[in-house]
């Protein structure tokens, strides 16, 4: 006879009730975006709002811990462990030149056509003309830290 699996609920650390309403609201927005119809959109455009909300959730937790210092390390690590925020993206935000990075796809050189970073990573001052730049992968309009 197979073992019965019991769900072990991990107790949230102190301060979770402070950030949980915002994270739940963003989670509801994410579900609404996932259920939207996709007719008339290009294939990558369907994922852009999902990336945007994912970025908002990660940035919210990052700001609370590193900028405002309103949450404890225990709560921060709990959020990373429970996948409320992207640990790899937050690790990049802590490095110089990546403070405004929108997603990890934009810095992966193997995914681009010419083996370089994404067009949204180029500072607007270095662009040839004043044209609107939009990333094909995530829809970002520019996430270079030099802007």
Automatic annotation (TrEMBL):
Signal peptide: none annotated. GO terms for biological process: mRNA splicing, via spliceosome. GO terms for cellular component: spliceosomal complex. Pfam families: BUD31 (PF01125). Its main location: nucleus. Keywords: Nucleus. It is found in: Nucleus. The keyword Methyltransferase does not apply. Belongs to the BUD31 (G10) family. This is Protein bud31 homolog 2-like. It comes from Stylonychia lemnae (Ciliate). The lineage of its organism: Eukaryota, Sar, Alveolata, Ciliophora, Intramacronucleata.
